[in-house]
Write a structure and sequence with these properties.
With 467 residues, the protein is mainly alpha-helical. 67% of the residues lie in helices and 6% in strands. A two-stranded antiparallel ribbon has the order 1-2. A two-stranded antiparallel ribbon has the order 3-4. It has a two-stranded antiparallel sheet with strand order 5-6.
């Protein structure tokens, strides 16, 4: 009734489902940890209670998101031993130590200071608490460093040797493995994406509260900070994405062919297909809207430069074009929408209407989830575009799976779907409840404790407000 191909498809679906859930949480915590570090630093430096209010406000959300990220990540690690044991055996000598470094450096750093960050605000000195916040923020970055190094090595494998039993063994230089050709570009692109994800989530929450009370100082501050981030970082991300694309063209040209929808080679300049419907059976993009020679201009900086197409690649080595094609356009489209919103906010700021333009606030609210959608689309481009390989060009996905029966994989997939939508659905609902509550308009610092005694001036309480 079932065969090996069915088990492989189910195993891939299971990993795609679980990693899609997991990827959203670190993308948020990386940016949110840094945002909390900035808020506490401003609070300590200026003594303004609004920064303290926002720190407490987003600290609750960070705690829930961090917990969900840890839980979803643990589940993924088990799948390497259950569904992908062959991959773990062959690539383990290279990726195993890198994953261990992530735990020994990043996770221990985060776990060691997270308790102080969450519960020590009234119990330790202001410098120690700020150090704890900084340590958690640095830990999230270090975690991204090692995880992206592992993923990048799978995309652009170098520095390895093949052992007698077919295993990938580390060569003489670990630096070559860690800093593989695509790693610097992927690290910059992904971390910037995490910062933008947080900026637009914060901006969306700020816009929500401004639409209800434009005089709330917490809503004003978080919205202003988020729009600064959008205006500055979104254009930088476009440039970083372009550089990453050029690196991908050099090392993974087939992925770029799928992204661009180039079924056929173009010897005298390739068009940039903006939209269309890829038809892999007929090897064409139907209803294509394109700009002549623009793809060659972007990728080769020469409008007449030739670009190879999928007709030069064996069909067995081609990724699913339709998925990669559309995921890439969603990612890029949202990137330009982020730039547009950032520029709109600059115009409003210059005219002194940042907190009055309700159209801007509604647009920011609509764009609140944009970062999550964009990072998920980018992950799909990266991972699906690498197919049919787990280690690009060397180890096929079909050769990486465990010898499991399809019913067993299907049963665990169904269990994951039910549990994830129940548990994480409840968690996301709770996060929305937290975000729906407006930040306190007037909230003092800790009534007693090291932070107040260290000289932090709270915002003044008003009649009817919380002291």
């Amino acid at each position: 009734m079932f065969d090996t191909a069915d088990a492989l498809i189910l195993a891939r679906a299971q990993f795609a489902f679980t990693v899609s859930f997991h990827f959203l949480f670190p993308a948020f915590t990386i940016g949110l940890a840094s945002y909390l570090m900035v808020l506490e630093g401003l609070w300590l430096r200026t003594g303004k209670g609004v920064y303290g209010n926002l720190y407490r406000y987003w600290l609750k959300i960070f705690a829930v998101v961090f917990a969900m990220g840890v839980v979803s990540g643990i589940v993924m690690s088990y799948q390497f031993g259950t569904n992908w044991s062959v991959f773990s055996d062959k690539a383990g000598p290279v990726i195993g130590p890198l994953m261990a470094y992530e735990v020994l450096t990043a996770f221990f750093l985060e776990a060691g200071f997270l308790g102080v960050m969450l519960f020590g605000i009234n119990k330790v000195g202001r410098k120690l608490h700020f150090v704890a916040t900084c340590a958690v923020a640095v830990g999230t970055f270090i975690s991204a460093f090692w995880i992206l190094s592992v993923n990048s090595w799978m995309q652009t494998p170098v520095g390895y040797e093949i052992g007698a039993n077919g295993q990938f063994l580390p060569g003489p230089s670990w630096m070559a493995i860690i800093f593989n050709p695509s790693f610097p570009y992927r690290l910059v692109h992904t971390v910037l994406a995490a910062y933008l994800t947080t900026a637009f989530a914060v901006g969306g929450v700020g816009a929500w509260h401004l639409l209800r009370d434009r005089d709330n100082p917490g809503a004003r501050t978080m919205f202003s900070m988020a729009m600064w981030m959008a205006a500055i970082v979104a254009p930088i991300q476009i440039f970083a994405g372009d550089m990453h694309g050029l690196n991908t063209l050099e090392h993974q040209p087939v992925k770029v062919m799928a992204m661009e929808g180039h079924y056929q080679s173009h010897p005298e300049g390739a068009p940039l297909i903006l939209f269309g419907i890829p038809d892999s059976a007929e090897r064409r993009v139907d209803y294509a809207i394109s700009i002549p020679k623009a793809s060659s201009l972007i990728l080769k900086h020469d409008a007449n430069a030739p670009l190879r197409g999928l007709d030069t690649v064996p069909e067995a080595d081609q990724p699913p074009v339709g998925i990669v094609f559309w995921a890439f356009r969603i990612m890029v489209g949202l990137g330009f929408a982020m730039v547009g919103l950032g520029m709109w906010s600059l115009l409003a700021r210059l005219r002194g209407r940042l907190y009055q333009w309700r159209g801007l606030h509604r647009a920011a609210l609509l764009m609140g989830p944009a970062g999550f959608v964009a990072v998920l689309a980018g992950w799909i481009v990266t991972e699906v575009g690498r197919q049919p390989f787990t280690v690009y060009g060397l180890l096929r996905t079909a050769q990486s799976a465990s010898p499991l029966d399809a019913p067993a994989v299907g049963a665990s997939l169904l269990a994951f779907v039910l549990v994830y939508f129940t548990v994480f659905g409840a968690g996301i609902w709770y996060l929305l409840r937290l975000a729906a509550k407006p930040p306190e308009a007037h909230e003092s610092g800790p009534a007693n404790g090291p932070i107040r005694s260290a000289g932090i001036t709270p915002a003044p309480a008003v009649q009817g407000g919380e002291a």
